[in-house]
Amino acid sequence: MLLRKLGLLLQHWMGTKYLMNKYLVSLRIGGQLVKTVVFADSTIHARLLCQYKYGMNSIAVGPVRVDEAEDDSTLLDSTINPKPPMTPAQARINALKQGVERSREQLHAERERQRQQREAERRRKQLQQRSTLA
User: Fold this and answer.
1) The model scores a pTM over 0.70
2) pLDDT digits (tens, 9 = 90+) for 69-117
3) How large is the C-alpha radius of gyration of the chain?
4) I need a labelling partner for 49 at 20 to 30 A (CA). Which of 5, 104, 129, 133 fits?
5) Residue 78 gets which letter from DSSP?
6) Could you tell me if 13 and 30 lie in one domain?
7) How many angstroms separate the CA atoms of 127 and 51, rounded?
8) Which residues have CB under 8 Å from 23's CB, separation 6+?
9) Distance CA 101, CA 107 (A)
10) Which positions ≥6 away from 69 have C-beta within 8 Å?
C-alpha cells in the first residue's frame, strides 16, 4: 500500500510521460494463445516491443492498457486452455461431419444457381414475346 502511494506521488511529481504503463497483450506462440504483460510508453510502443520479441504476426489481440491497481493473477489466470489432440477415430468422424456440411452447402448453392438460371430464362422469353408482339 505504501509503495502504491509512493508510486502515485512519484507519478504526480514526475508526470506520466516518464513512467511506463502496463499493457496486457495476447500473443500467438507455437499455435497457442498466451497472455503476457508488457511495460511500455504507449500502445504503439507495446505493439512494437511484442513484434520485435515474438515476431511480426504474433499479436492475436492488441495491447490493452491495464490499471496498476488490478491484480496480475486475475488477468493472467483466465488464459485459454488448449484442446487436447483428437484421436484418429474422432478426427475421422469430424472430417466426415465437415464433409457433410460442405456437401449440403454445395447442394444449396447449386439449387439456387439453377433457380436463378430458370428465372433468367423465363424473363428472357417474356421479353422476346413482348418484342415480337410490338
Assistant:
1) no
2) 655 555 555 555 667 888 999 999 999 999 999 999 999 999 999 999 9
3) 29
4) 5
5) S
6) yes
7) 61
8) 37, 38, 39, 40, 43, 46, 63, 64, 65, 66
9) 10
10) 4
The residue to which cell 447442394 is assigned: 107
Quick one: CA dihedral 49, 50, 53, 58, positive or negative? negative
Domain residue limits at 24: 2-77
Residue range 122-132: average pLDDT? Answer: 90
Q: Are 77 and 37 spatial neighbours (Cβ–Cβ below 8 Å)?
A: no
Residues 94, 43, single domain; the answer is no
Count: domains in the chain: 2
CA distance 11 to 102: 58
Residues 69 and 92 in one domain: no
Which 3 state secondary structure label does DSSP give 68?
Answer: coil
**Predicted confidence (pLDDT) at residue 68 exceeds the cutoff of 50:** yes
Q: Within this chain, do residues 12 and 70 fall inside the same structural domain, yes or no?
A: yes
Q: pLDDT category, 18, cuts 50, 70, 90?
A: low
